[in-house]
Design brief:
CATH class of the largest domain: Alpha Beta
Number of helices: 13
Radius of gyration: 21 Å
CATH topology of the largest domain: Endonuclease, Chain A
Shape: elongated
Helix content: 40-55%
């Protein structure tokens, strides 16, 4: 994903300043075919070469330069989730990339607690439900459950790194009432949500039953904002066996408006925390 983002932005900058691909390639002592591969996200590039290109394109904004140079560094490092290639479907790889690079993640969940906020026991129970999709007699199933649980917990490191991603989650009350994994697992999950909601970079809102119908009565929605402000938001709509990534500006804007509406309709963070406490007592 860093390669794709970097390449797309370098192509935009080159075209904006009227430079040909051959001229850009000459500036970094590379072939035109290599420049083409770079802009399509097919190859990495040294940070020094990216810096030279940005200078040639007239990019002086320090924030954008820093973002693109950081992407160049990331593009040359094997991603950590490659170790889980055996349990990561191809349609999920793109989302993993943008999630790990995210500055802000906004999401709505109706069926389960968001993956970034799940405890190990809850995640394991959710993942086991996927056995219906893959067949009850699928060989090596329990090993895949363990591997996918490990991956899900590893993804959560973005909330605990030195500069954590900002997470803003709206969770339907139905997801918080459903005893996935049993009552004890649900109780621990609710306690974990309370603890996470107290972090300054995590906002949790509950969409209560009494809110009635609302704009996102369908499936889950995730919107990822990348750092630097120069890249479009990424919308991720997970389905049963695949995912959709709407990219048209009008579609992205529609989902941004949807998330704003959900934040208004849901309980405020303080009352949401109180509701979580009440659910714990009732579980």
């Amino acid at each position: 994903m860093p390669r794709l983002i970097l390449g797309a932005r370098l192509r935009e900058l080159r075209e904006a300043c009227g430079m040909s691909r051959a001229e850009a390639a000459w500036a970094i002592r590379a072939s035109e075919s290599k420049m083409s591969r770079l802009e399509r996200g097919r190859t990495g590039c040294k940070a020094r070469d990216v810096a030279d290109l940005l200078t040639g394109y007239g990019v002086t904004d320090e924030a954008e330069r820093a973002t693109l140079l950081a992407l160049a560094e990331q593009a040359n490092v094997p991603v950590w989730w490659q170790a889980y290639a055996d349990v990561v479907p191809s349609w999920f790889e793109t989302y993993l990339g943008v999630e790990q690079a995210a500055r802000v993640i906004r999401g709505y969940e109706v069926q389960f607690v968001p993956g970034l906020l799940q405890t190990a026991d809850y995640a394991r129970a959710v993942i086991r439900l996927g056995r219906i999709r893959e067949g009850f007699a699928a060989p090596g199933w329990e090993r895949r459950v363990a591997r996918r649980t490990e991956l899900r917990l590893a993804r959560q490191r973005i909330l605990h790194r030195e500069r954590p991603a900002r997470l803003w989650a709206v969770i339907d009350e139905a997801a918080l009432r459903r005893p996935v994994g049993g009552l004890a697992t649900l109780r621990r999950q609710l306690a974990h949500l309370v603890a996470m909601s107290e972090l300054p970079h995590v906002t949790i809102q509950v969409m209560p039953f009494h809110a009635g119908g609302h704009a996102a009565a369908g499936g889950p929605v995730s919107i990822v904002r990348l750092p630097g402000g120069a890249f479009p938001d990424v919308v991720f709509l997970e389905q049963l066996t695949n995912a959709v990534y709407p990219t048209r500006p009008a579609e992205v804007e529609r989902y941004l408006h949807l998330m704003n509406q959900l934040a208004v309709q849901a309980e405020e963070p303080g009352p949401s925390r109180e509701l979580l406490h009440r659910m714990m007592r009732e579980t």
